[in-house]
TrEMBL record:
Protein name stated in the entry: PROP1-like PPR domain-containing protein
Organism: Ensete ventricosum (Abyssinian banana)
InterPro entries documented for this protein: PPR_rpt, PROP1-like_PPR_dom, TPR-like_helical_dom_sf
Start and end residues of each PROP1-like PPR domain: 495-619
Entries under PANTHER family matching the protein: OS02G0170000 PROTEIN, OS07G0661900 PROTEIN
Record key words, sorted: Repeat
The organism's place on the tree of life at top rank: Eukaryota
Family annotation (NCBIfam families): PPR
Residues in the signal sequence: none
Amino acid sequence: MSLHCCCCGGRDLSPRRFGYLRNLPCSLLPSFASSRHPSTLFLPPLCSLPNPNLTVSSRAPANSNAAAAIPPSAPRFREDGLDDEALDAFLADLSPKEQTVLLKRQRDWRRALHLLRRMRSLAHYLPNPFHYNVVLRTLGLARRWDELRLCWLEMAKDGILPTNTTYATLIDAYGKAGLVKEALLWLKHMRARGVSPDEVCMNTVVRILKDSGRFDEGERFFRGWCNGKVEFDVLEIEIDGSDSISPNSFLLTELFKSGSRAPVSKKIAPGVEDGPRRPRLAATFNTLIDLYGKAGRLQDASDAFAEMLRSGIAPDTITFNTIINICGSNGLLSEAESLLAKMRERRIEPDTKTFNILMSMYASAGNVETVLKYYNRVREVGLCPDIVSHRIILQVLCERSSVGEVEDVIAEMTKAGARVDEQSIPVVMKMYINQGMLNEANMFLEKHCASTGISSKNYAAIIDAYAEKGLWKEAEDVFYGTRGTRNKNDVVEYNVLIKAYGKAKQYDKALSLFEDMRNFGTWPDGCTFNSLIQMLSGGDFPDRARELLGRMRDAGFRPRCETFSAVIASYSRKSMISEALEVYQEMKALGVEPNEVVYGSLIDVFAEAGKVEEALHYFNLMEESGLPTNCIVLTSLVKAYSKVGCWREAQELYAKMKTLDGGPDTMASNCMINLYADLGMVAEAKLIFNDLRKNGEADGISYATMMYLYKNMGMLEEASGVAQEVQKSGLLTDCASYNNVIAAYAVNGRLKDSAELLQQMISRKILPDASTFKSIFTLLKKGGFAMEVVSQLESCYNEGKRFARQAIITSLFSMVGLHAYALESCDLFLSAGMPLDSFAYNSAIYAYGASGMVDKALNLYMRMQDEGLKPDIVTYIYLAICYGKARMVEGLRRIYGLLKYEELEPNESLYKALIDAYKIAGKHDLAELVEQEMRFSVHRPNDDDSETEDLEIYDSYI
């Protein structure tokens, strides 16, 4: 598609007259595939509300001669304290044109209305349609519909019939207020009076239709006007009894009056005929081009521009702005740049809006540097940035977290007397919050919101920025903080603060806020209930969520499917099947159709319970409702079959999942591996596991299940190999994953590897749990620790005694030779400055003795006695080890004497410790003597049940 510039020496046009358009690019809007409804990147600037005390315009009036005839003090009659008599004398000296200029200068509707009424009270005043048009426009822009109605009636009382200008003014005012239907009703009023819209009025109607997204109607109205027959019936205006708003009721009444006052002939009823005509205003073509651009009809926009040139109408800055905006909205950045260059070549100066469009265009493309370039260009060409310029640049810089540059822009705005637009305040606040600069955020908010205040929508955006970071206290401070002139919180602010409480799991605060809403004159809406219900459901409080679900229905709100789904899922997670089904039935009774999440939750809860038939029932209902089957639901069914050992059915489902997009997920594969593991089907499980490993989808559960399978099948080397692979893969992220690998190493006798993993786990601040200590006890037994030692450690752990965990870990590290870690762990309780039990001293004596620091071990023994603790069997076993390492034969003889003379109960573990100690000390003859004594004194079998416990360990993990 090309935008043909037919004026360049083209037919029916004088090249001299249109020389400024020579050499325009022949493809301003080239062909490309685009959306029919592209989004507009440029947002029109928000005009600042005028100060009622400031009535003199900063711009020169349209009629400078008339304006010059009005004394500068004229508009300030209120401030100067002029009474009505003085004002009447002043107005009587003004001509009608001067009176019109005076009315136009008034920015406050009260002043304008008072002036008009004083004019009407003058003795020689002749009713003037221009005066009414000005006041009607002022009232419309201020949205003072009752006053506008009265002014309209006064106009009729004065015998002034509405003109095209009057209708264009009213249509524009209602359209800008968002009352499109009411604006179009004025067209029917025109038809009833037999008034045909002129070009300005027609352009106003097309613009209103364009801005409301009714592009086809706008084009048809334009075409009908050009053809000389305005087709009012092409406008889809529906009038029904439900429209009870004041402006609409007033319009319907006036239409009735006008119909009875001036009957309309059948000839002009469907439309008003004036003969073919052509638009002559650049504004008309600008509106038409923008309409086509927003409708995504770029070829039509190009044709409209070409028609504008063929008609001899010179494009202005607004024309180029519109086309640049269309290019930018469709990603044609180079074309937009070319148009900007052509503007300068043809001596059409860009305005601030031009640069705003370009800034917005590049901001959407993520080109921050170019945005900054055009922001600086605004001043370079002698223009001033407006509110939109500042809004765009702040948005871009905040998204880039350029704190210093943002503060420079704000300082520059303050210096120029400009305020930060309220839409930019949440953007700047979010930047500060994301950067953790909470003090700066508070100071910024106080400076820019404390005195003037901002809308509830923007306060909610600020609260939400805190909520996303879990900063519920700060969000609460904003909610309850100073609001300038507005003290009442809107429902949207309540909703966002409830969200903040929910993310921080402050459920009681959220519910308390909800209960307090009505006390402060704000009623919860559907979003309030939905947020609370989903919050409580996510926190596993399904009963409280269900109670709110009932209150939501009582309040007249219809819960969404997602709301029911959250409650059902919450009950399902807690295996509360009957309650989940009750909510499902309530949902169906209300006519809310379940989605795949609802069915998935029900199928999963039955699958967890092993109820295959019920799970299949809801799966069939899901298929009958036309919802697509997904891997999550099929995985739940695989799980259900796994629970009851139906491996063939599970296998068929798994094969079906392979035919879906993406194939089975890791969870489904793990379910199959677990099923095969329970049935001892090694080859089948290994096949799926290898596929997961090949695709990089194997997780900790996959590896743990395979270790469990190999162990149960007696394939200890394979189990150990999988454990080693887990350790290298980086899947050791929590206590459970460490436990699985430690257990696999323990079963295969890799004691030191297990202890090193335990140390790694502790260094990563992952606390060992009961399963970890169960493995440690097995490791101690496999490492040759006496049963009395293990029993003592297990007993103190089960009783929850102080320092029991440290003593157990110390014993393990000492046993495998990790003496540095053992002494580090030992020091945790020795230096705590708190009383110790015998087991703690025993572990410390062993740790220091095993590391060769016998003197330190014996000192601890003496310290133990000084504290009144008597040595037990475990103490003597560890002392025997220390004496043997130090070759202290006399110490060994003392312990042997206690056994020989029955001061200690005969104990096989202690005898064995003495035998080993004598051998270490080189006294083999004494070792043989003790061994002979043991044979006669102790008669019990060697009962090592560590192998039996290996299976129990794996059963507790998987």
